[in-house]
Specification:
single chain; alpha/beta; Rossmann fold; Argininosuccinate synthetase, chain A, domain 2; 2 domains; 12 helices; elongated
Length: about 400
């Protein structure tokens, strides 16, 4: 049911086909002023085109916001501190952007005295949940318009027909057809639809926009040294970077060396399986390096506890609960483990592979004297292991006898 008395609505606007159609649809169906908000999260070249398209659609208030540093520092890096992977593979590049965009939509709505916010997430997807749970967490009284749950434009053909009849331009790919459904930011780019809807079909090589194929990557390995401070990367090969610039630099290095391609079938929160392809070069490098530095700086049980909690944390982000009390409290624990996660990791990148070649830290818990196969100067008595094994074997022996 449509909300009544909607005079102003703030739309999360990408400049793509769906949100461009939504601008026109909101104007016609709600007879309201549409304000567009576009967050620059590092999606490369889409920002100015979004502004141009919004003007063409008659939008008077157009907000463009450079959020790259905030996005990486306050969202991406905290997430990576947990070594986060959804279903052991997905680095959550789309999911982690939604709470920030929602926060900005709420801020713009307040600034412009708007009655509602709107988004272009489909009724089959996760993003509708992420946007709306985030928005309600920040403003429980906000009204939300989700066109995909109201209109009859429920197929790509219907969208294209609507665009044509309303003189809305449609971007085409190299084959003169609408491109894959894509989402991009400084952490990743995702692809869905077209041939990818068949999980048996291989993604075509010309789909990938960022990364080289392993076949075309350099034939010589590239060495990279990353410094960490309190769990976050702060320099590459001795050169300090801001959060966004370090991720961008690692994106460029990783893309050149065919790092970060992923083709998965994931379980959506709304109940279906979905096949998607992702390119996350810099994030993949950071995750590998982070695990290496944590391996020498974290206590064993703390490291194991983090590993056990990671899937829960990943589910919270994937399912839209970034602003929930459980995520915020879990984040406090994760961050508390990172004070000692400082040091250097040396990696070798080669044709899609990331090889850890060294790690060192002033906070290292690794003891050469304890680990050595040579004489350990009396720090470890081998005879102690007999009692340790005997105690742990008690229940196993008892079970076997029964």
């Amino acid at each position: 049911m449509k909300e009544k008395n909607i005079k102003k609505v703030v739309l999360a606007y990408s400049g793509g086909l769906d949100t461009s159609i939504i601008v026109k649809w909101l104007q016609d169906n709600y007879n309201c002023e549409v304000i567009t908000y576009t967050a620059d999260l590092g999606q490369k070249g889409e920002i100015e085109s979004a502004k141009k398209r919004a003007k063409e659609l008659g939008v008077n208030q157009i907000f463009l916001d450079d959020c790259k540093e905030e996005f990486v520092k306050e969202y991406v890096f905290p997430m990576l501190r947990a070594n986060t992977l959804y279903e052991e593979e997905y680095l959550l590049g789309t999911a982690i952007a939604r709470p920030l965009i929602s926060k900005k939509l709420i801020e713009v709505a307040k600034k412009c005295d708007a009655d509602a916010i709107s988004h272009g997430a489909t009724g089959k997807g996760n993003d509708q949940v992420r946007f709306e749970l985030s928005a309600y967490s920040l403003n429980p009284d906000i009204k939300i318009i989700a066109p995909w749950r109201e209109w009859e434009l429920n197929s790509r053909d219907k969208l294209l027909s609507y665009a044509t009849s309303n003189n809305i331009s449609v971007d085409l790919d190299k084959k003169n057809t609408p491109p894959y459904s894509m989402d991009a930011n400084i952490l990743h780019i995702s692809y869905e639809g077209k041939v990818l809807e068949d999980p048996w079909s291989s993604p075509p090589e010309d789909m990938w926009r960022w990364t080289s194929s392993p076949e075309n990557a350099p034939d010589t390995p590239e060495s990279v040294e990353i410094e960490f401070y309190h769990g976050d990367p702060v320099s590459i090969n001795g050169k300090k970077h801001s959060p966004a610039s370090i991720l961008e630099a690692l994106n460029n290095i990783g893309a050149k060396n065919a790092i970060g391609r992923l083709d998965i079938v994931e379980n959506r929160y709304v109940g279906m399986k979905s096949r998607g392809c992702y390119e996350t070069p810099g994030g993949t490098i950071i995750l590998k390096a982070r695990r290496a530095i944590e391996s020498i700086t974290l206590d064993r049980e703390v490291a194991h506890l983090k590993t056990e909690l990671m899937p829960k944390y990943a589910n919270m982000i994937y399912n839209g609960f970034w602003w929930s009390p459980e995520r915020e409290n879990l984040q406090k624990f994760i961050d508390s483990t990172q004070a000692s996660v400082n040091g250097l990791v040396r990696l070798s990148l080669y044709k899609g592979n990331i090889i850890v070649e060294g790690r060192k830290s002033e906070n290292s818990l690794y003891s050469t004297n304890l680990a050595t196969f040579e004489e350990d100067k009396g720090q470890y008595d081998h005879k102690d292991a007999a009692g340790f094994i005997a105690l742990n074997a008690l229940r196993l022996k008892n079970k076997a006898k029964k």
